[in-house]
Amino acid sequence: MLVETSYEVSSEPVAPDGVYSMRQRLLLALITCAGFLAIRLIGPTLRFAVSWEDGAPGSLEKRPVIYSFWHRCVFPAAYLWRNLNIRVMTSQSFDGEYIARIIQRFGFVPVRGSSTRGAVRALLGMRRDTEEGWTVAFTIDGPRGPCYVAKPGPVLLARSTGVPMSVFHMAVDNAWVLNTWDRFMIPKPFSRVLMRVATQIMVPADADEAQREQLHVQLQAALDRVREFAEANVNKVGRELPIFHRASVN
Fold it and tell me: pTM to 2 decimals?
């Protein structure tokens, strides 16, 4: 779903085509089609299990929640969390453009922005969405890393809204791993996927700078903790960990 900590808010999935060259428009169309088909074809073959820490949200449908996850998990997350109208941060880069187009086709609402533009407007927009009861999500090390280093946006949003933060990680037992900054995963068909979801973290409305920094440390620790758990236990999916089904969702 989304990207980093500062954004220009828009419910539109893409920037106007006029800002792209003909070559870029063709690439966007091809990448969007290929990405959508890959997720749509591989997604139903995956064997998911979901594991919740004590105090975690306990349901994919619970809202509002401010979720964070690593950029490399976008592929399996796009399928498992589909059609829940989650607001997802997507950067204003070319990469963010095709991600926004793909995830919108799976029922997400892209919120556009970048690390250098639209920070105040983005946080105001995300505050509006959470106050209306929507769940939002950050790909917390995006759009360009470093990998596995969390940015502080969720802490700021949680402080201003009173909505709890949570994080998750999705481990895949058999995936193609791209040679990119985020080590992006494309699950191979019929792979096992374990999603581990962390306990919720509340941010006091009066949290000062020192408290916000400590809560950011907690957020990073939770992301590390669920990643370690998921990667250590993904081979138990279908045996000790039951398969998770969302049969009612197309």
Answer: 0.88
194 found inside a domain: yes
Residue 185 CB: number of other CB atoms within 10 A? Answer: 22
8 Å CB contact between 72 and 184: yes
d(CA 198, CA 40) in angstroms, rounded, equals 27
> Is residue 12 one of the residues assigned to a domain?
no
- Domain that residue 91 falls in: 17-236
In eight-state DSSP terms, residue 242 is P
* AA letter at 5: T
Domains contained in the chain, number: 1
Per-residue pLDDT of the chain in tens (250 residues, 90 and over written 9)? 333 333 333 333 444 444 788 898 999 999 999 999 999 999 999 999 999 999 999 999 999 999 999 999 999 999 999 999 999 877 777 887 888 899 999 999 988 765 445 556 667 778 889 999 999 999 898 778 899 999 888 999 999 999 999 999 999 999 999 999 999 999 999 999 999 999 999 999 999 999 999 999 999 999 999 999 999 999 999 999 999 987 655 5
Q: What are phi and psi of 167, to 5 degrees?
A: -135, 160
Length of the chain: 250
Residue with tokens 């808010």: 9
